[in-house]
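Supplementary notes for students who missed Thursday's class. We covered one full example, reproduced here. Read the sequence, then the structure, then the short commentary at the end.
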Amino acid sequence: MKSLHLTAALSVALAAAHGASAATTPLSSDQTRVLAEVRAYALEYSQKLPDFICIQITHHNTSSLHSSEVGVTGSGLPAQGQDKAASSSKVEERLTYFAQEEHYEVISIDGKKVPGARHLEMPGAVSSGEFGSAMREIFDPVTQTAFTFDRTASLHGKPVFVIAFEVQSNPGARVYDAIMGQQIFASYSGRVFVDQDTKRILRIDSHLNLPQDFPIELIERTVDYNPVSIAGNSYYLPFNAEVVMKERGVSYVNKIDFKAYQKFTVESTIHFDSGENQP
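Structure (token representation):
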């Protein structure tokens, strides 16, 4: 996960998923071979993608709990309760993938054009890196990720290997809390779901391991990949993602859809509407 950003509070450079440590059981020879194939796929993933554009639609949901006085106890003291405040917004963006980098153009917020709005300045939690950088960082030998085979399962109707991974705090993930001005490097862990036949990655679950005294309590992300046709060729690209963050009693949940993929050329145009064209 190249970056996560919580406009009011934080930015993060990487993240990862629930589960036990990935640094225990040695891999068998067959598992080592599979891991080598998956690593090669992950490290070449971005290089093999074409230049393209798509629509990214993010539903930001924010909820918070705060105490409120709700009557008087038998001792004469006010009884405390919790009220839940919630808000939501929909951000539509044009995502251009060019020269292995992502570029975002905010088209509308809640259906209204907002001149000058920028991707990393959106309210709530904002993420990027779904198009290969997070995948590459997990499998880059320099990261020294520890891997174990968790189990076999089924995903999107396909048999998959579930591979657990863990990265220590060095290099780890850079996490920055803008409100307090605090920065740390945290370890992260997760699971990668790999098609048993093709060795393509179909899902990455991730969970950031944050210290208890840090203002941000939780960061998790799931990215699902599906085959998408661009200019007559098939590529596995993100079709949805979910980001969950919690801090100071506030919960942020982003549900992201990627739609209307097409090859990017100088003459490319894309129409922004309800987005029925899904990968």
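Commentary. Residues 1-23, 67-79, 271-279 have pLDDT under 50 and may be disordered. The first helix runs from residue 29 to 48. If anything here is unclear, bring it to office hours.
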